[in-house]
Amino acid sequence: MQRRTVLSAPLCLTAFGCASALKLPNIDPDATLPAGHGLLVTRALLSDASPGMSQRPDVSITLIDVTNLTVASAILPLSPGENFRAIALPAATYTWRGIYLGTYSSEFRGKLPFKIEAGKACYVGDLDLQIDWRYKTYKLAVKDRSRIAQSRFEAEYPKLAGNLPFEVSLATDLRGL
Fold first, then answer.
1. Phi then psi for 37, rounded to 5 degrees?
2. In whole angstroms, what is the distance from residue 148 CA to residue 141 CA?
3. How far is the CA of 98 from the CAs of 46, 59, 76, 87, in angstroms?
4. Residues 37, 89: contact at Cβ < 8 Å?
5. b/e 45-81 (16+ beta carbons within 10 angstroms → b)
6. Where are the domains of the chain?
7. 3-state DSSP of the chain
8. What's the average model confidence in pLDDT over 12-36?
9. What is the pLDDT of residues 118-136, one digit of tens each?
10. CB 39 within 8 A of CB 160
């Protein structure tokens, strides 16, 4: 489901428990997954519906453990185009928390949950994000492109791919319900 949503301003990430220390990098290709952790696998595809704009603010999306809705679990900075992410997280149920575009933001209110299981590579779906800076709106859709993501995971993380089952665990889009 795709929805056009208006962004609100201003909002400081730190006011909601987010900090730069939570900007988690992709796991090292030669790393071993820590005990009790799973691997979040996703692709965020960021496109711009505002041709002609020369400067655009930084874009990030956050996720949060549903048992602690006061502090973000991770911040994922996004660049235009494809953003492939493979991040080690403690096993838990999470939700995409919100999107941050410079001083503008929109919270998803726990309406995009997904589960990370220990010892598994959990593909939670592709996030298709289109931003229109002129009207301060965005469209977000969760898409199942698991074959593409799995091929990319196996190519970039052969050691982990050989040791972890790849599981499709798509985020459920409850925003329209």
1. -110, 155
2. 17
3. 15, 11, 11, 18
4. yes
5. bbeeeeeeeeeeeebbbbbbbbeeeeebbbbbebeee
6. 3-21+33-168
7. CCEEEECECCCCHHHHCCCHHHECCCCCCCCCCCCCEEEEEEEEEEEECCCCCCCCCCEEEEEEECCCCCCCCEEEEECCEEEEEEEEEECEEEEEEEEEECCEEEECCCCCEEEECCCCEEEEEEEEEEEECCCCEEEEEEECCHHHHHHHHHHHCHHHHHHCCEEECCCCCCCCC
8. 72
9. 999 999 999 999 988 888 8
10. yes
Euclidean distance between CA atoms 58 and 76, whole angstroms? 11
Rounded CA-CA distance 87/136 in Å is: 29
| Per-residue CA distances from 127 to 1, 3, 102, 153, 159 (Å) | 11, 13, 19, 16, 25
- For residue 83 the two structure tokens come to 């953003």
Amino acid at position 41, single letter: V
Q: Is the dihedral of CA 46, 50, 54, 57 positive or negative?
A: negative
Residue type, 82: E
Yes or no: say if 56 and 7 are a contact pair by the CB < 8 Å rule.
Answer: no
> Is residue 77 predicted with pLDDT exceeding 90?
yes
Two tokens at 17?
């428990």
Q: Would you say 140 and 100 are in contact if contact means Cβ atoms under 8 Å apart?
A: no
* Entry pTM: 0.85
